[in-house]
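Project standup — Tuesday

K.O.: blocked on the structure for the chain from last sprint. Re-posting the sequence here as requested.
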Amino acid sequence: MNGIAEALRNRATSRLATLSRRRVVALLVLGAVLVWAVVQGAHSHDGLAPVARDLGAETPARTIAIDASTGQLDLRGLAVRPGEVIDFVLVGSAGAPHRFVLSGLGGAEIDERLAANGDTVIRIRAPQQGALSFFCVVPGHEGLHGSLVVDVGGERDGG
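H.V.: unblocked you, prediction finished:
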């Protein structure tokens, strides 16, 4: 009988050890998942993406009129200074909806509004360096896109 009791005790100990190993592995996996979730939750791109802001109180350094009836936005050769505020006025856009999106470096800001005559005014604050692209996401407005280059060596104006 002593041998049977010993065998049962060994079997129970073995099961307990296996169960404990499973628990340890499960807890380690759970801990790793929790650490990953916390790290991902704390990860952000703040300061990297352009920001929509109310730039209405800002005074633009210059205003660039664009003929919206052409369906094209040609900004070739246009350079802006870091942090410069510029108004783009889509002349003749009265009644046409627009929704512009910025893509580029952090520190850029955009504000879109309608002028009293119905023209769309897009006010942009340039980032501190690099390039900034923007485009209208309204279907049929594929030609309304452009890119600005931030000229840190001085201003050059090709637009």
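K.O.: great, moving the ticket to review. The longest helix spans residues 2-42. Strands lie at 51-52, 62-67, 79-80, 85-91, 100-104, 109-114, 120-125, 130-136, 145-150.
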